[in-house]
Specification:
Blueprint (H helix, E strand, L loop, with lengths): L7 H11 L1 H12 L2 E6 L4 E6 L3 H6 L3 H12 L15 H6 E10 L2 E12 L5 H11 L3 H10 L5 H20 L7 H19 L4 H16 L3 E7 L6 E7 L3 H4 L10 H7 L3 E4 L11 H7 L4 E8 L2 E9 L8 H47 L10 E8 L7 E8 L3 E9 L3 H21 L3 H15 L6 E9 L4 E7 L5 E4 L2 E4 L3 E2 L13 E4 L5 E5 L1 H4 L10 H12 L4 H16 L8 E8 L6
Parallel strand pairs: 14-17
Antiparallel strand pairs: 1-2, 1-4, 3-4, 5-6, 5-9, 7-8, 8-9, 10-20, 11-12, 12-13, 13-14, 14-18, 15-16, 15-19, 19-20
Helix pairs in contact: 2-8, 2-9, 6-7, 8-9, 9-10, 9-14, 10-14, 15-16, 18-19
């Protein structure tokens, strides 16, 4: 019966014949990692070949070299291979290692391992532990460790791809393929291409370099990279190498009109043997004039998401080999992954910038909300303000007016977020300006309404309640512009303040009335926005007026701020873990003896 493994001497002879040791050096240098090649029984054939300063420093001592080999051997999951005799836990726990079995047919020839790149920056404690395991003073490794850059997800992905492709290549070329060195250069280019795009802040510049590199590696006449616009189906040129402006200006390229690109975006590799005479070619005359004969087209697709199309062209008839097709597919996949990563990074930066601006806007808006309630003899005032987002459309305000009068305002602008916050600022400013210059409350609300009608679009509006309270007499003159009516709790009974008019911002000619109520000692006045009564629980039930009224009665013996806080707690307890869908604002005024009429 034939052995399931290949004789170790065969592996050594093959490596020598194919100059595979040089290829492993290229792999180590390209990935800045350590490479070790083991035979079928786990003995070292080549290596460790170090590609970074830390591994190189470890390899300078016999104990450190044994540590590297043991860490790599531990990555081989094969019961036939003995466990490492050296404790390599320090290296295994802090570094990534990858093992690729090498098989020829159904027989195992050996294992290629890649590793010794950290997942994170190495801490002094880890460096000291590595130094101890290698029998070296910590100072000998500290400098090298500081130069060792952690492995990013993109680099690790590219390195594993490169190692896998290299392993497949080796097993395919055990018959001393004469093109091995060129293939190694091509695979190194695959790795470099992914890093070139992922590490660039200028995507167009990086793609231009990729196009030139592809032409060099694949020895073709020209290359083009087109990115897909998912909205229009257009394929826009983003990078070219060795194609004339006249050819590039031949006309639009869309997926619907181009079966070659449509097939490529579906994941097919498209071969073009004679472009000028191929019926699928969209612009045959321009291809002939450009001197394009054969071509290979591959979609740039990563994890099912199509990014664009990669094309290479030759100036003479050429039949692309399966390896060239695989190479172009690997390059296309790398470029697609790098482009998507670049886009995600750009989106993350934009989201972070927007979040900072939104946070700042929230700070500015919160400065418009009174930090503390004003102090008036005989009045106890409390307030709660909870926007759904950083900014919102609710606000309340206290306005000190002549004659020791107090302006009380609460409003709710339709919508949420930034648009609502801008309307809120406009409404607040208009209310304050008119409150300082007018006495009649109905006129004040009329002017504010006309101001909002000029500033709002159809469907945008605000509700508001504005009242002027004389603390000396307890008289409250008010106007309710379509707002949830404030509740006046007196002797256990609730009176709603309804007098006023319609919502603000809809009808510039709307008329408003004013109401008057004389407050008495012990009265509790609650102003609130719809977030208090429309809060939903998981059963889609609203907190509602009845619950708010009962809650107000239950907590009316407390001071004003504690009443507001207890109302908020009751609403939160009712809502539970359900999402908050609206801003919530409440103002509580509790009347004492001095303010009673």
């Amino acid at each position: 019966m034939e052995s399931a493994t290949i004789c170790p001497s065969f592996l050594r002879e093959t490596i020598s014949a194919l100059s595979f040791g040089k290829a492993l050096t290229v792999l180590a240098e390209a990935t800045s990692a350590t490479v070790v090649l083991f035979d079928a029984v786990g003995d070292v054939v080549v290596g460790p070949i170090t590609g970074n300063v830390l591994a190189a420093r470890l390899a300078q001592s016999e104990q450190g070299r044994s540590l590297l080999v043991a860490a790599h051997r531990s990555a081989i999951h094969d019961q036939a291979i003995a466990a490492p005799s050296v404790d390599a836990a320090a290296l295994i726990e802090s570094m990534d290692h990858f093992a690729l079995p090498l098989t020829i047919g159904d027989r195992r020839a050996g294992t290629l391992t890649l590793g010794d790149r950290p997942r994170h920056l190495l801490s002094p404690a880890v460096v000291e532990r590595l130094a101890h395991a290698a029998g070296l003073p910590p100072t000998a490794l500290a400098s090298a460790a500081s130069q060792l850059r952690p492995w990013s997800a993109g680099e690790a992905f590219a390195a594993r791809n490169l190692t896998s492709l290299l392993g497949e290549l080796f097993t395919e070329l055990c018959a001393r393929d004469k093109d091995l060195q060129h293939r190694i250069e091509e695979l190194s280019a695959v790795y470099n291409i992914g890093g070139l795009v992922a590490g660039s802040l200028d995507l167009n510049d990086a793609l231009g370099k990729v196009a030139a590199l592809i032409c060099t590696v694949m020895r073709v006449k020209a290359c083009s990279i087109r990115l897909l616009d998912e909205q229009t189906g257009g394929l826009a040129i983003k990078a070219v190498h060795n194609l004339s402006p006249e050819y590039l200006g031949k006309g639009p390229v869309t997926v619907d009109d181009n079966p070659i690109d449509a097939s490529a975006l579906r994941g097919e590799i498209v071969r073009i043997s004679d472009a000028p005479n191929d019926p699928r070619t969209r612009y045959p005359q321009q291809a002939r004039k450009e001197g394009i004969v054969s071509g290979l087209v591959c979609g740039m697709v990563y994890r099912g998401e199509a990014v664009g199309v990669l094309r290479v062209y030759t100036g003479e008839a050429h039949v692309f080999t399966p390896f060239e097709e695989s190479l172009l597919q690997a390059v296309a996949s790398q470029v697609a992954a790098a482009i998507l990563t670049s886009r995600l990074f750009a989106e993350a930066l934009e989201a972070e910038r927007y979040a900072r601006q939104l946070a700042y806007a929230g700070e500015v808006q919160r400065r418009m909300i009174p930090e503390r309630a004003p102090s008036y003899e005989g009045l106890d005032i409390g307030a709660i303000y909870r926007p759904t987002f950083e900014v919102g459309g609710d606000f309340y305000d206290f306005i000190s007016l002549p004659g020791n009068n107090l302006g009380l305002a609460i409003a709710d602008v339709s919508g949420k977020g930034v648009p609502a916050s801008l309307q809120m600022a406009s409404l607040r400013a208009a209310l304050r300006v008119n409150a300082y210059h007018m006495y009649d409350i109905d006129r004040i609300l009329s002017e504010v309404n006309r101001h909002l009608c000029r500033d709002t679009l159809v469907g945008e509006f605000a509700t508001a309640f504005y009242g002027v309270l004389n603390p000396g007499t307890g008289r409250l003159t008010y106007c309710n512009a379509g707002h949830h009516p404030p509740m006046l709790l007196r002797g256990g009974e609730i009176q709603e303040l309804l007098t006023g008019g319609t919502v603000l911002g809809m009808d510039p000619d709307a008329a408003f009335d004013r109401g008057i109520v004389d407050l008495r000692a012990g009265d509790v006045l609650l102003l609130y926005t719809d977030g208090a009564v429309e809060a939903l629980n998981f059963a889609d039930e609203q907190f509602g007026n009845a619950r708010l009224t009962e809650s107000l009665r239950r907590h009316s013996e407390h001071n004003a701020q504690l009443i507001a806080q207890n109302l908020l707690w009751d609403i939160r307890r009712f809502r539970g873990l359900a999402d908050r869908t609206d801003d919530l604002t409440m103002v509580v005024v509790k009347v004492g003896e001095k303010a009673a009429g």
